[in-house]
Amino acid sequence: MPPPNNPIPPNARLPLLAALAAILLVPLYNLVAGPGTLTVLAPHALLPTSLRVQPATVRVDLGTGKVVGIWGGIREDVVKGKVVRLGEDEWMLPGMIDTHVHLNSPGRSHWESIRHGTLAALSGGVTTLVDMPLNSLPPTNNVSALETKRKVAKGNAYTDIAFWGGSVPGNERDLKPLWEAGVRGFKSFMVNSGVDEFQHVSAADIEAAFTELSNTSTPLLYHAEVSLPTPPEESSASPTLHSTWLSSRPNEMEDEAISLLLSLLRAHPHTHAHIVHLSSASALPLIRAARAEGLNLTVETCFHYLVLRAEDIPEGATQFKCAPPIRGEANRRALWEALRDGDIDMVTSDHSPSVPELKELESGDFMKAWGGIGGLGLGISLLWSEASAHSIPIGTLIKWMSAAPAQLAGLSSKGAIRLGADADFAIFAPEDEFTVSKDDLHFLNKISPYEGLTLKGVVRRTFLRGKLVWDKTGKGAQGRPRGRLI
Q1: Average per-residue pLDDT in the chain?
Q2: How confident is the model at residue 123 (pLDDT cuts 50, 70, 90)?
Q3: What is the mean pLDDT of residues 268-283?
Q4: Contact (Cβ atoms closer than 8 angstroms) between residue 398 and residue 96
Q5: DSSP states of 107-118
Q6: Burial of residue 48 (number of CB atoms within 10 Å: 0-12, 13-18, 19+)
Q7: CB atoms inside a 10 Å sphere around CB 172
Q8: Are the C-beta atoms of 193 and 170 separated by less than 8 Å?
Q9: Of 192, 207, 193, 188, whose CA–CA distance to 263 is shortest?
């Protein structure tokens, strides 16, 4: 038989075989070793050991998405894998967590959707959301509704996402199954919720929920307003004035609700009650006294109560309507003082948008408009604009926006840049300023009371489990939604 054309010389066969083996083995190695390592060199990083930023080098295992190494200073000698070098004008912060959002899917996705809402969150460095049980259809009041919501969220969430269950009249037997199915706790209204399918609870309903969940560690969240025995006199003032709406929801509605809740909590000292969106500073003495007694009580307020003032709200500007309402300057200052003193634990958005028609933008009628604020993605800039002017360190803000919410929702792998935690980071430029426009609003219905405000501090990039998922200068979202259901 004649020899083959262009035979391979024997001395060349070994290198060729080695090259072929390398080509074949690289995919196998990647399967075994994972996608690799990321090293972040940060001149200014916020670590749990300090309320202020410091130089740090952080290593991430991209296979697990976990922080696997932290060194003080810029350590070129430990650099491994992909490298991200942050600028001198950038701070590396933990990804933030918002435990009070209404993403409204399924059923009212035209108000807000999981895809749009989570994208808006990413733009502001928020890497985890906990979705409220209303205003979706069906509300998350049983396991079947939870599974429906999870199916809608899967593959559509840009952030990690968890869910609260609903505690409503008559669903006591659904609470433990929901808890066992993975909800992070339960939300109730003590006053009309605004939607028929989510009825408000009575004292007897609260007692029943406390009893049903007595052997669990679940937090029970309350919209703490009640109707007063003697309702406020109906105002003859124009419904286009915010003051007309404000007078219909006085502080006493919150104060009485909190007093009732605390009286029930005293009979269940191991139950964890959480007050959402506190707006009434006159309730703070009740909260302080309850904590002095040792009651298991946590409290949140919202960005709009800390940034906006009733005195500044223009006539007909229904984008400012929410419940409880935005109150006056003295009340706002008292809330800030309570935050600094630790009487309020955290700050959330209570992002609750709707379609323009429901906001009554044309009529400007506060009494008819949907009560909900759109602002997801602006939180860190809203707080930093105020806090930096009063020498409140960034670590204190992150405690309010990340560590405390993580603790409330039982998210043990979130809330700080620490070994073993999820590598969720926000790269924040504290000196950058911007004036809020619709281009900065990435949620579905771009209606917000913050439009036109000039804010300090910009999230330039966001990382979720070590992967770049948002780049402000690089067309926003980086690739498909990567959020997980947690």
Answers
A1: 93
A2: very high
A3: 97
A4: yes
A5: T-TTT--HHHHH
A6: middle
A7: 15
A8: no
A9: 207
CA distance 415 to 405: 8
Q: Looking at per-residue confidence, does 2 or 186 come out higher?
A: 186
Which H or E run includes 131?
strand 126-131
Please give the residue that has the higher pLDDT: either 455 or 4: 455
Q: Which pLDDT score, from 0 to 100, does residue 250 have?
A: 97
Cα distance between residue 344 and residue 301, in whole Å: 7
Would the pLDDT of 439 be above 50? yes
Sign of CA dihedral 281, 282, 287, 289: positive
pLDDT reading at 33 higher than 70: no
Strand partners, 427: 92, 461
For residue 195, the Cα-to-chain-centroid distance in whole angstroms is 23
Residue 313 gets which letter from DSSP? P
CA distance 128 to 349: 13
What proportion of the chain, given as a percentage, has pLDDT over 90? 90
- Residues 6 or more apart whose CB falls under 8 angstroms from that of 464 comprise 65, 95, 122, 127, 159, 160, 424, 482, 483
What single letter denotes the amino acid at residue 472? Answer: K
pTM of the entire structure?
0.92
Q: Is the N-terminal amide bond of 219 cis, ω within 30° of 0?
A: no
**Token output for 387:** 């806090």
